[in-house]
Amino acid sequence: MKKISLFIVGVLALFMQYSCSELDEKVYSSNLTTNFYTSAEEIEGAYMRPWSHLLFCDTYYYLKLRTLGTDMAAWTTKTSENHGYDNALWSELHKHTWGTRHGEIESSWNTVWEGIGFANAVLEGIEDKDFEEMGVSISKAEMQAQLRAYRAYMHMIGLDFWRNIPIVTKVGDPYYPETKSAQEVFEFVETEFLAVKGSLPNAFEPYAQGFFSQQSVEALLSRLYLNAETYIGIDKYEDAIKMCDAVISSDFFELEADYLDAFSKDNNLSKENIQVLTQKGGSSMSAPLHALTCYWSNHVDAGGWNGIITQEGFYDSYSDDDARKNQFAVGPQFYADGTPVYIEAGNPGSGQLVYSKEVTTFHSEGLFEGARCKKYEAIAGLNWNQEYDIVLIRYAEVLMNKAEAIMRQSNGQADQTAVDLVNEVRERAFGDKFAENKYTTTTLTLDELLAERGREFAYEGHRRTDLIRFEKYLQPRWEKESTSDATRILFPIPQTQRDINTNLKQNDGY
Amino acid sequence: MGIATGDASTDWYDEMLQSNHNTVHNIAFSAGNKNSNYRASINYMDNKGIALESFKKNLSGRININHKAINDRLNVRLSLSASQAKYRLADYGAFGSVAKFNPTRPVYEENGEFATFQEFGVDNPIGNIRNYSTENIKKVLLANVFAEFEVVEGLTVGGRAAWKVEDANSGSYTSSKNENLAKDDIKGVASTSSFYSYKYTYEGNINYRKRFDKHDINVMANYTHEEDTWYTYSMSNSGFVNDKFLWHSIGSGLKLTNPVNDDGVQDLNGPASMGSGRSEKILESWRGRLVYTYDDKYALTVSYNREGSSIFGENNKWGNFYGVSAGWTISDEDFMESLSFVNYLKLRVGYGETGNPATGPYNSLSTVVQEGLPYVFNGNVVSAYALEKNPNPDLKWERKKEYNIGFDYAVAKNRFDGSVDLYSRKTDDMLYSAAAPVPSLIKPTIVSNIGEISSKGIEVSVNAKILQDTEVKWNANFNASYNVNEVEKLSNADEEPVPFYAGDLPGNGLGSAYRVKEGGSIGDFYGPRFDKFDENGGWVFKDLNDEVEGYHADTDKEVIGNGMPNYFVGLTNSLQYKRFDLEIFMRGAFDYQVLNVGRIYMENLDKFPQSNIYTSALSSPLRAPSQYSDYYLEDGDYLKIQNISLGYTFDTSKWNNISYAKVYVSCSNVHTFSNYSGLSPELGGHSGITPGFDNLNFYPVTRTFTIGAVVKF
User: ipTM for the complex?
Assistant: First the structure.
């Protein structure tokens, strides 16, 4: 009987042991958000995420939407094997025939909002934290200003691509944000930039490198105001000039003597770069321009996707005396030490890699048609983990923006100030041949300015916005045979999102 | 533009296959007496798969011990089993690749190396398999102890404890000869990972049964606690001196000991990687059940379960589930005596609910993890931290409800028996990783309780002893079912109905094949309707929407088919003649469509020679990129001879020491009767949210012949 009692006690004990057990989840490999932002290291770690996101997205996703529908570049289909066809993703961008489920447009949409979400999450996380007590490297006011400027910049990308988008300042609230008018989005970007500017550091101050500064916000505002007529139909050239003047008079910046120095491996220190996105060799996967353009990059020393090529007419718009032509890889390719690059690495029998500037058709017979942009200085052997910083905005743009704003205030007529500004940028491209290449008030027309902007800012993500502002984006070009409908100025809101969020309105024409 | 082709003739599909064989060994023995008995067994299986390089070897052992004591009032059972499986899975994706691969390309170069097509951006699928080594080892240890004691007559108290330890290791090595690695001059990539899980279950039972007069009462109460913890570890390294070590000397790779190059910066693709993780979940339940039977004719069962799971939101961890059912054995009633044709008839009605914790842990919690690329902060590289996933604090139990009415019967001297069941099932608060609104959320998916799906149907089964007292005996079993489902509710957090789409089609802009929408059915294909090809071989689709003139891709779409069969049938015929027996099993599914994704991809001349194409592409008038429509939907109706087996049983009555001996031959997947033009209408599957989606990446159906013998001593 004793055994039996013991057994019953055992069974009952079993019941008792777990009858009040906890069903709360314990996390082991992650942090509860409510238990994060508790130290300087945690806060600074969260603060990194929006920027590392932008570093990747700006040159990877947004560059494609900003260039592949223009006269500058194209992601062509190559050989009878349809290399780079990618189910028409890129030819649709070239021909302006994208639909509401275009994968690349959707990726850009998602990453813009992901970035905004990252910034909003940190803003919420640090709201009631005492930075001084925790010893965070920068003040709370500065971090909040940075994150709001970041959020405004991402909304500005959205404004440029889709125009009518929600304004989102909290994660998940409202859960289904509604579309705001371009006017409202424009005002949000402007107001936020202006509101936080004073709390940001000056350019080149500690902790400003790779983040926003008062001057980078002013420079971005000049870009915003220059496009105000396109975005919201209101002329803001006066404001654009004011912002350019603020940047110029800060005296922090000067043009590099050599065009490519702004893109060198040490370009974080370049006085021309108003804002960069910083990387350090080996720490990030980012050499997107080389990956997107090159077949085998003798600069990165790794295989790329052999995707984006430069359209021949665009390449030919550079005169042979123009130093900026050196940003392209054309002709037989060599490594820095002079040895040839072979089509199959290390196999001379496969022949030397030769890019031709000539491009036959969008669907080309050869693999190596078209000049490839190698603007950034890469370190061989570092592969896709490069040292150079990605340029978000540089001084040359501020000078050109001011010149254009002046011209637009007088019906496209350049005055001497405008000409001097453009010539200041153009001079270094021509060096001792500048005298015969400089602009005058008669030669600097709006068309010429557009072409010069193209040459100066190739592959820096301005071409689509510029063509739209100069009203040339819809024109037929190359294998885009007819003028596209005006509604193509805006990309469609991805249908996948409209299926979920009925508060999102589709842009006209889709 | 000319079409450049190679000059080889390669059957890539054939290259992907290897002849297989299968060996099985079993040994078992048992012994015992009135109070104790045991059984022990060891099994060994060695199977080489039909897909190149695939295999599976399995070793397992098991011991069961039963013991009774105290006048049989105490009953103790112990069991222990251990198994180890070693395997390399077939590469399902490769079955799709080889089907698409250009047949004019060779597998090997003249020098015996794998042919490379790197200038075309595609890999040699056979080279990829051969230049990749991998092995998985999975060990499972199960221990189980069960005890039950009869306290007084009718009252038993019992408990069970079970432990399950699972340990899975896998290693893989991609040789430096792999095309992609060779291209970037990477000297081999090794990785190894392990998964260790520990699960225990404690259970307590009280059961009371009392019979008096014609009453029979059975009350049961149960408490179960289940805790599951798992750990993961992984590492990888590359840059090996040769291809000899595979993943067995992972520390010798360049990236671990020398992650920087001569310039003092990190080399190539970053350093060696490693990771570890730990997760757990707890399930707890209280169950009660009462069964009351009167006169063995009337039965009533009432049950209540209260279940708690750690994986749900803070306020939704517990769910209550009820059940009630009743049975009436009509054939035992006096008034049935006159109906001698009916041997047995029982009517059943019931309602039951069950909870389904069908998602992983931590989906309700907002968590932050190291994520994405690091960034440089004042000259220092700092790891970035961000939200792991969209949290859903309202996550709750998925609940299945079922109403059932049916009867069991036996008639004509028990020559025919079977059952008929009518049911209506409903899944409420269905759990699904649904698309999330971006904005306002950060990630594109969120695990949610998204809707209600109902399913109604009837199931009929008949067992017939057609010929019994003759030299040839013939038994048949027939079952058939009819089922329709409906998505009754599918809404977002604002309770606005929103559809979602599933079944991504291969190709940009082709979108998804299925729409799941309130009022629709699971498996609805949604798209345009094909009208004809124009003179240039371009698509002409039908104008389905009267409001706007002409065809518009966004509006002229409708439900163009459904991939879920409405009817299933199964028929087994067993024939016996003297010592021979023959069994034929057939089954079929009807009234549904299959999307032949292979045709979208390969029934198009444009795809050649980038891809292999179907011969039907040559006769197709299509000269435009493939687009999704009902053009690619085909009726999936099929009837299949699943298995035929023929056996002979020896007369062992005069044999010494042998009590039973039989030899047999059998063949499975004998033949499928179907008009479907793809490999098999079954491959798309009949379940999930994308039924009937034949996208080629499936392990092919194999026809198996088996010859066997069974001998008992």
Answer: 0.91
